[in-house]
Amino acid sequence: MNTSLFERARYLFITLSAVAVVFAIPTWAQDEDEDAAELGKIEVTGSRLNQTDVETAQPVTVISREQIELSGFATVAEVLQNTPYNSFGSFRETSGYANGQASVNEISLRGLGSNRTLVLLDGRRIASTGGSGGAAQNLNQIPSAIIDRIEILRDGASAVYGSDAIAGVVNIITRKDFDGMDISITSGSTEVGGGDYTRANITGGVSNSKGNIYYTFQHYDRRPQYYNEIPYASHASNYDYFSSFGYPGAAITGLGIIVDPRCPEANVGSSRDNGSNTNSTFPNSYYWAGPGLDTGLGRCGYDFAQDIMSIPRAKRNAFLMKSSYDLSPDVTMNTVVMFSQLEGDSRFAGTPITAPFPVIPSGSPNHPMIAYGYDCTPDGSGTGTAPATAGCGAATLLLRSVPNGYRDNTVTENITDVRVGFEGVADMMGGMEWELNVQTTVNDIDNQTINLVNKTLLQAGLDAGTVDPWGINSTLDEVAVQMLAFNHTGLYQADLKTTMGDLIVKFDVGELAGGAIGMVLGAEYSHSSFDQLNDPESNAFLIAGSAGGDNINAERARKSAFFEVGLPFTEQIRVAVAGRYDDYSTQGVGSNFSPSVNFEYRPTSWVLLRGTYGEGFRAPAFDELFGNRSESFPSGIDIVGCANGVTVCTSTQYRAFYGGNPDLGPEESEHYTLGAVLSPLPELTVQLNVWHTEFEGLITTSTLNREFEAEARGETNYVVRCTATDQCQEGTVNYVSLTSNNYKGVTMEGIDFDINYVMDTDNMGRFDMGVNAAKITKYIYQRFASDSVESNEGEMGLPDTRMTPYLTWGKGDWGVGLTGYHVSGQETDYFGTPYSVDDSMTFNLRVSYQLPWDASVSLGAINVTDEEPEQNSDWYGWEPFDFSLYDTRGRTVYITYEQSL
User: 10 Å Cβ neighbour count for 435?
Assistant: First the structure.
């Protein structure tokens, strides 16, 4: 526990209590005499107890349908990813990710990971994505047209919802009792180029005294955005950010590193470099030299940014139907059916052929040194300069399969969610409410990536002399045909199926001075199966440029029992106690009990003082236990390699492996909140909340820079360097292992502040203004117990403050909304070298008008001032910004037409 934060919280609580009592004295009698408006009992996110107040002990942020529309964002993902509580950003769909992840959008409350943020639909779990092994939910499956409001619980809730809810809960509440039909269409166009979209919705429903049925269909289509359409990221402006794997390429030989003479001689950064290569034979290839390379030689670098999609093409269709029917006066049947089909197309540059690197054997008639006039015949019988080693020795190629084409990835994700439930009342326990629910979710992913490279076939061709990549004895056209012989199409399939059932009963067990003691008892059973299948060559790790790996067939069952009791000691003081027992069938995970206790104190009608305490538990997900071993090339700064002079000292791409770990144990968390809600005027609401969360045994993957830092400090790390026997330059990075592991944990603390003021005027209309803000005051990430306890909030990629100010106006048929999105600047001193980015602030503007024929039209702009993301290429590398925090589309102008029928 952090003493300073605890002291601040204690003083805040005492001060607010004193203020509340002082103001309460003259109004207490008046409050008792006034007739308060009776609210129907509702269930608020964070508790299954029936409540009569919207504001309870748990800190919940509500985003209304009107606020969603005023934001101008076209998808649920965009709305949630721009909230202040998505602290450090979250995964956004982008090229370069396998297993269907290129079409996934997630939210990570408090920056603790999307696998610790539970997403619900009307209080029930939605399907997890198979590409993550069930670790997280893909927000793209939820059509925005169904939403009535979104409730964000900014606190752990494992005791209520289960182990996935340890960071917080996002509960999407759908529309109900809808009569009639609405049709709407939206078209948006970006300033930068790429990312233009169209969205169409059809929503309808009917209701009568016995029940209702509601349905919606949504279609969303977005064209891709390429990095070459983004002015500040269209190509790498410095050779340090180019790939060493180019075309026609380079080779490591007895001479050192030699470059194919055909590589365009436009040294990046030289006076001859105009920032683009106009060589049509070898587009995007550049000859460059750098530290650790033989003087005058270098490499044939490749500007892969010219080829890549930054935002994939997306096509989504979603259908949801809800119905409610009274079978009798005491029993109601509820059904929900949701289908979503998500299609995405992404593109990455031609395949870099990585370790084991292709090798041209000594004495080959296609040996690269022949291009430099050497006699590479085995017996020295040829013409040219005699080499030091007969046959010129083996030559390791640094090659990219550009002639084979781009690595185009196509993913189709089909999601089915079917729920059938019954609820009613029974003349038992003095009047008991009950629910019985059954739910099945299915997530199927089919992923195809073309133009990969079969390294075994390539090496066989090099050994036989049938592949001549340097064109020693072949024309360019002949080489292109030769390379097609080892082309490969990678296939990946994942199926995640979950069946759940639960029984919940609610009843009163007595009374206290403040009212009835409410009790909730429940039991839940869940069974999940996960199947992951790669094509045989990828499964055997024979393919370059892919995420091929393990085939998985696994299943897991979970049994849970839970309770919750509400204790109204007085009309002003209420306490709720909850607990949940989870028992997993997965070996090594076992069982756990998660308790929580919440309190609320209302000294007067306009003051609420509240607090929560809870513990959480999360079992490893399928992908964390058995995840696909994947190869990727993140950017980082190799501190040891820089110090030894074998690599550049700025951010560069390195080979890394990601994947699961079957030896993982569970993680456990502890959290508390303390805050106040003040409404001194009917028009004014102020909320202040402090919170603390810490994890032990945190399940996560490390990052490239964290491993480089650990190596530089002489600590345990997963950096694997090339040795004299490897097919790469000795001392350079071979790869870094970034698989899932149990780490020491994370400690976080912060403050949330919300203020809202509504002003109704007779002549000028209605104004609604306020701000939602979240500040991180502590972020300590420890891999091992011996690691530093230095707080890292505010460092690169870890903004300590996010705010959303807003102002809306409405009068008659007109409405205007202006919403801001602030991300604080970040700064890191990385082993004596400072890196930083400035504050970011963007605004969304929307103007709407109600037409006389039951229709409306809205015109708006996202990022109306066309701000660029904050950039630092020395830190982030070739992609000079944090894609999880910032949007690259610039100003997006859109128009929406909606017709009611």
Answer: 17
Top mean pLDDT of 27-41, 433-447, 635-649 is at 433-447
**Tokens, residue 175:** 């529309």
What count of Cα atoms within 13 Å lies in the side-chain half-sphere of residue 894? 32
> CB of 97 within 8 A of CB of 308?
no
Which pair of structure tokens corresponds to residue 269?
Answer: 């950064």
- CA pair distance 363, 9, nearest whole angstrom: 75
CB 401 within 8 A of CB 506: no
Angle among Cα 181, 184, 187 to the nearest 5 degrees reads 170
Q: List all residues 6 or more positions away from 83 whose beta carbon is below 8 Å from its beta carbon.
A: 61, 63, 107, 152, 772, 802, 804
- Residue 57: which residues within 8 A CB-CB, separation 6 or more? 47, 574, 576, 598, 599, 600, 610, 611, 612
Cα 414 to Cα 834: distance, rounded to the nearest angstrom: 46
Contact 364, 358 (CB under 8 A): no
Strand partners, 819: 806, 844
The helix (H) or strand (E) run that includes residue 551 is: none
What is the pLDDT at residue 659?
76
Instruction: Give the model's pLDDT for residue 549.
Output: 64
- What H or E segment, with its residue span, contains residue 388? none
Parallel/antiparallel/unpaired status of strands 684-696 and 698-700? unpaired
pLDDT given for residue 784 in this prediction: 75
Alpha-carbon gap, residue 821 to 151, rounded angstroms: 19
- For residues 47 and 56, is the Cβ–Cβ distance under 8 A? yes
For residue 554, give every residue at least 6 positions away whose Cβ sits within 8 Å of its Cβ, in sequence order, or none.
529, 530, 622, 625, 626
Please, which pLDDT band fits residue 382 given cuts at 50, 70 and 90? confident
Count other Cβ atoms within 10 Å, centred on residue 780: 19
For position 800, what pLDDT does the model report? Answer: 97
Distance CA 143, CA 182 (A): 14
pLDDT of residue 352: 92
Q: Cα 731 to the chain's mean position, in Å?
A: 34
Closest CA to 860 of 811, 895, 810, 887: 895
CB neighbours of residue 895 within 10 Å: 13
CA–CA dist 766, 183 (Å, integer): 27
Domains in the chain with CATH codes: 3-228+311-349+409-454+487-900 (2.40.170.20), 233-309+350-407+455-484 (no CATH)
Q: Taking 90 as the threshold, does the pLDDT of residue 299 lie above it?
A: no
Reading the block at residue 410, the tokens are 């196509």
| Distance from C-alpha of 221 to C-alpha of 229, rounded to nearest angstrom | 19
Mapping DSSP onto H, E and C, the string for 394-429 reads CEEEEEECHHHCCEEEEEEEEEEEEEEEEEEEECCC
Could you tell me the pLDDT band of residue 283, with boundaries at 50, 70 and 90? confident
What is the tens place of the pLDDT at every residue in 451-491? 999 999 999 999 999 999 999 999 999 999 999 999 999 99
* Most confident of the ranges 52-56, 293-297, 315-319, 425-429: 315-319
Supply φ then ψ for residue 111, to 5 degrees. 75, 20
Write down the pLDDT at residue 676: 97
pLDDT at 7: 46
Please give the single-letter amino acid code of residue 897: Y
Other CB atoms within 10 A of residue 169 CB:
26
Contact 133, 622 (CB under 8 A): yes
Q: Are 365 and 371 in contact (CB under 8 A)?
A: no
What is the identity of the amino acid at 766? R
Query: Which residue type is seen at 207?
Result: S
pLDDT tens digit sequence for 694-740: 989 888 778 888 889 888 988 777 899 998 888 788 888 988 988 88
> Which residue reads 């094509």 in tokens?
535
* CB 313 within 8 Å of CB 221: no
Residue 648 and residue 291 in contact, taking contact as beta carbons nearer than 8 Å: yes
